[in-house]
From TrEMBL:
SUPFAM superfamilies: 6-phosphogluconate dehydrogenase C-terminal domain-like (SSF48179), UDP-glucose/GDP-mannose dehydrogenase C-terminal domain (SSF52413). The lineage of its organism: Bacteria, Bacillati, Bacillota, Bacilli, Bacillales. Pfam families: UDPG_MGDP_dh, UDPG_MGDP_dh_C. SMART domains: UDPG_MGDP_dh_C. This is UDP-glucose/GDP-mannose dehydrogenase C-terminal domain-containing protein. Residues 64-167 form the UDP-glucose/GDP-mannose dehydrogenase C-terminal domain. InterPro entries: 6-PGluconate_DH-like_C_sf (IPR008927), UDP-Glc/GDP-Man (IPR017476), UDP-Glc/GDP-Man_DH_C (IPR014027), UDP-Glc/GDP-Man_DH_C_sf (IPR036220), UDP-Glc/GDP-Man_DH_dimer (IPR014026), UDP_ManNAc/GlcNAc_DH (IPR028359). It comes from Paenibacillus cisolokensis.
């Protein structure tokens, strides 16, 4: 019950669709559950909206992605939000540098693209990127030294899709930080709009 970029995996997506279908068989329009599915899908698009808000054009941008599994401590990528987010980034012309501690091989089977680079470490993925998007809340990522992260990134943009980072620690850095349901921290020089949470 934590805010984030939405659920994935083998259960929630299948079960919610099954319940909607069962309701339809008895002529009941399950509006509440349909809204749950719609909101869940829209949450992942907020990552893309925040990237565009800060960077403008995504074509040619290098976006680091930390986390490919639908949840930490697994190599399961079934219905992972990362598929749709990375797919949209690639469609927009971005180069994606992705890393996951254990799920990269499984993810690569579902998404091969010349502009999708699968890295062997979190630092390798972040090096020279215009932004970093955290999509799975592995402990390794939350423990990554923020000063090192800022030094690795070409631009100081961190989009935390799982609220994995400590805001008080982020506030000590020059990182422009978007989390879910929280105000943006550390206004960047490219920011023009008021602080928004997603």
């Amino acid at each position: 019950m934590r805010p984030g970029i939405g659920y994935g995996g083998s259960c929630f997506p299948k079960d919610t669709q099954a319940l909607i279908q069962i309701a339809g068989h008895v002529d009941y329009e399950f509006k509440l559950l349909k809204s749950v599915v719609e909101v869940n899908r829209d949450q992942r698009y907020n990552v893309l909206r925040k990237l565009t808000e800060y960077l403008g054009e995504l074509r040619g941008a290098t976006i680091a992605v930390w986390g490919l599994a639908f949840k930490p401590e697994t190599d399961d990528v079934r219905e992972s939000p990362a598929f749709e987010i990375i797919g949209r980034l690639l469609e927009a012309g971005a180069v994606v540098r992705a890393y996951d501690p254990v799920a990269a091989d499984n993810f690569r089977k579902g998404l091969e693209h010349p502009n999708a680079v699968y890295c062997s470490s979190a630092a390798e993925a972040a090096a020279g990127a215009d932004a970093l998007c955290l999509l799975t809340e592995w402990r390794e990522f939350a423990d990554f030294p923020l000063d090192k992260l800022q030094a690795l990134l070409r631009q100081p943009l961190l989009i935390d899709g799982r609220n994995a980072f400590d805001e008080s620690e982020i506030a000590k850095t020059g990182l422009v930080y978007y989390a879910v349901g929280r105000p943006r921290l550390n206004r960047g020089i490219r920011e023009q709009s008021p602080a928004l949470a997603f």
